[in-house]
Amino acid sequence: MALIHANFFSQAVGMERQIEVILPQVANGVGQAGADEAGMTDIPVLYLLHGGSDDHTIWQRRTSIERYATAKGLAVIMPSTDLGFYCDMKYGYDYFRYIGEELPKIVHEFFPALSVSREKTFVAGLSMGGFGAFKLGIHFPEKFSYAASLSGFLDPAEDLKAFTARPDRPESAFDWIYGGAEEVVGTIDDLPYQLDEQIRKGTKLPRFFMACGTEDFLYQTNLRFKNRFEGRIDLTWLEEPGTHEWGFWDRNIQRVLDWLPLEERRTR
User: Fold this and answer.
1) In CATH, what is the architecture of 2-259?
2) How far apart are the C-alpha atoms of 262 and 76, rounded to whole Å?
3) pLDDT per residue as tens, the chain (268 positions)
4) d(C-alpha 190, C-alpha 149), whole Å
């Protein structure tokens, strides 16, 4: 696999942005499967989103995502939105417009071998990135066929109450993003409401995957989301003992990749 770091200008946020990119190669090192030359076009792609305390480098630093993606012949795009919650912030930047509309165009401009088909385009993330992944899947179902959330912050109107109580997360940060929990209700960031609306309209939605540790401070909100939509959407749910930490996310991103419609490659 090739690991590429790209800097570029974003019109949506009016400043430089960065992405980490993992791309399949025909020839790989010992212990890694190479890609079939015939399959080096229309490559399946996963947009992999970071959490609130991290950036575009974190999945590479805390997991073996490159090794996992190699086994699947998968390209991985890891962008950064800072602590912007994949939102068009009330006081700040249009990170959702950047991630949902501008970034896919930039990615395909830079990497034309990547698939543009819905069936081969996926999104996943952890915590804040789980919110971003489900938000993208719900609002751009024509672009993403699979969306996965690990320990996701899925219901801001409720989650803000628990999250802002943590000493490492000042409430003022969420004032800049949302303007307050009461201002989320019924908006684009109210994911339960928006998903209900998409179901009501009969929209062809992605398949969804949720995983959360039973000791995670977001477990109850994940369970509530699961109970609300199970049986109404194509939803895979996984829970196991665990907190809000990288051991859980490293294990479960592997399960996400196994859930995606990807062919396993043999190592050499």
Assistant:
1) 3-Layer(aba) Sandwich (3.40)
2) 13
3) 899 999 999 999 999 999 999 999 887 665 566 566 556 799 999 999 999 999 999 999 999 999 999 999 999 999 999 989 999 999 999 999 999 999 999 999 999 999 999 999 999 999 999 999 999 999 999 999 999 999 999 998 887 766 666 666 555 678 888 887 788 999 999 999 999 999 999 999 999 999 999 999 999 999 999 999 999 999 999 999 999 999 999 999 999 999 999 988 655 4
4) 16
Of the candidates 101, 98, 103, the residue with the CA atom closest to the CA atom of residue 87: 98
Can you give the residue ranges of every domain in the chain? 2-259
End-to-end CA distance of the chain: 14
What pTM value is reported for the model?
0.93
